[in-house]
User: What shape does this take?
Amino acid sequence: MVETLTREQVMAHRIAAQGLHRDRPAAIAALASLGLQDAGPTARLALAARSDGDPDPVARGLVDGWTHRGAPHHHPPDERNAIAAAARPFDDADAAARLNWSGPEQRRVGIPAREAIDRAADALAEVVTEPLTKGAASGAVTKLLPDALLRDCRGCATVHVNEQLFRLSAFPVGVGLDPTGRTLLLIPPPAGWERPVEGDPGRAARLVLDYLRVLGPAGPREVADFVGTSAAAFAPAWEAALPGLVEVEVEAGDGAQRSSTRDVHPAWLPADELDAALGAPDPDVVRFLPPLDPMLQARDRPLLVPDEALRKDLYKIIGNPGALLADGEVVGTWRPRASGKKLTLEVAPVVPLAPDVRARLDDEAERVAAARGLRLAGITGV
Assistant: This one.
């Protein structure tokens, strides 16, 4: 029998699985295994929303690198090699999808996509033997690559290696990031680094399981989109993971929105997460989630945020606000406004906030300010 989960159960499960009740330290490890995206204070605020401990990912022993979609993510240092192996493209179609290369672009380049990544990775391995700024590394790599892999960059007013190619070539050779200084540094691989040679569906299955453990239930398209490829290209990883998954049905919308025929779709969870999903605790938490927070990384965005106008506001191309989470729902957005050492949070709820939710905002806002090393001046908009 296939179990059915309501949207409310899915939200409650994700909130619990991601440690947003602040009572599940193992959830932090699960999130780090998938990757905590690093963009300004995002990772610090995501950790502050989930733990009373130090919100600094570096202090927690996490390390930074360009992984999923070429975006910087914090991961446990002892898992970096396994993640690099799991993320190795299976073939040229997979590599091209990760590079965002269209058919005409691939023909223009004239170099198979996976070979292009390998060439750039060879160059990075040769160049990054000590900490280097991104600009210095890019300039040195550019000199080692054929013209077909370079781009005329208007922003830089120069020609350099394609940006996404540059990012995707770093992790295979263990080149990481040091974001702690004023200037981002690329750092050499750790001792004993093993460069992945071939895509391995068995190893890539860990990405499926890691995603579904904290953002499930979901399907193959959502996982592939998070990784940065197409569902067709990532199919070998999904097939390898299937024996450890269980299929469920997910009902969309709340009780008032469901049709008489039930709006349901198939999705999957790790088999050992089904009971937790069915019995997830009430999501009675109020949290200021930063932009790019793990909760907001779910690829089934209409399920996460049914309100279309709110969803468009949350997922802009640039300048995304944070999300206000209250009792299992995203109920608005927020933006930080810093002035000197003071921080004001501008909140824009899309529904009236219950008195008990409003009463909990101050404590959560204090956490946001503390995680940024500032003092809370107040909250506006509520």
